[in-house]
Amino acid sequence: MVHILHLDSSPRGDRSISRALTKQFIDVWKQIHPDDAIIYRDLGHHPVPAIDEAWIAAAFSPPEQLTPTLDSALMISDELIEELLTADLYVLGIPMYNYSVPATFKAYIDQVVRVRRTFIIGADGYEGLLKNKKVLVITTRGGSYAGEPLDFQEPYLRAVFDFIGITDVTFIHAENLAMGADERQFSIAAAHKTIHQVIAAWQLDYSNVLYS
Ligand SMILES: Cc1cc2nc3c(=O)[nH]c(=O)nc-3n(C[C@H](O)[C@H](O)[C@H](O)COP(=O)(O)O)c2cc1C
Fold first, then answer.
1. For atom 4 of ligand 1, which residue has the closest CA?
2. Ligand 1 center to residue 90 CA distance, Å?
3. Which tens digit of pLDDT belongs to each residue from 102-126?
């Protein structure tokens, strides 16, 4: 059985295109593999808190020095990291906000990038601990930025995922969503098609290992 972490970060509801696209992925996957487990996180509607002084003190304290108060500062972080460790595949919906990720997603990143839990500092430097994970990032954008210097989303996410060990990263950018109905339709249709291709590719990767 595969575990999928499905995460949305748009604050919008029914009008959110990133939500519709991640849902499409999950719906199709569930039709093929109804027994797979989906862990759902809605950061857009239920944001996780920004890290604070207690969090930083706790995260960087040696484990033997953790008091119950320090420990409780990491409760949410522990829960989120557990989800990341449990899931084999991640499907993330992330709108572009001001050239980058929404603050809700940045707060999530700050909660899960944690020494001794998702990375370690070894003899050869930093090492990410989230091994053998695959991530599909579906971004939505009013304009067109893929491959351009103003795209602070994809390079940032690649860097931060790489830091915690996630190197198998696929992006689908649904762009030009604010450029009129035709452009929007075209972009969403292209994203739908690519979602099916990613599902086919991931299934191939996993069929021998997990479904045999
Ligand atoms: C606060 C805000 C900032 C935005 N910044 C950008 C931006 O920098 N570049 C861009 O192409 N689109 C930008 N957009 C447009 C969104 O990326 C676009 O509306 C997208 O569809 C939002 O995702 P959603 O449909 O899942 O809510 C912005 C939208 C909002 C509300």
1. 97
2. 22
3. 999 999 999 999 999 999 999 999 9
Nearest to 91 by CA among 133, 129, 147: 133
Q: For the chain, which domains are there?
A: 3-210 (3.40.50.360)
Question: pTM (2 decimals)?
Answer: 0.96
Q: Which residues surround ligand 1 with Cβ inside 6 Å?
A: 10, 12, 16-19, 95-99, 140-143, 145, 177-178
Give the residue carrying structure tokens 């762009």. 175
Residues above pLDDT 90, as percent of the chain: 90
Three-state DSSP state, 60: coil
Structure tokens belonging to residue 192 = 């739908």
Which residue has the least CA distance to atom 19 on ligand 1?
Answer: 142
Q: What's the gap in Å between 94 CA and the centre of ligand 1? A: 10
Judge contact between 25 and 199, C-beta under 8 A: yes
Which positions ≥6 away from 2 have C-beta within 8 Å? 33, 36, 37, 88, 89, 206, 210
Question: Hey, is 24 helix, strand or coil?
Answer: helix
pLDDT in tens, 25-36: 999 999 999 999
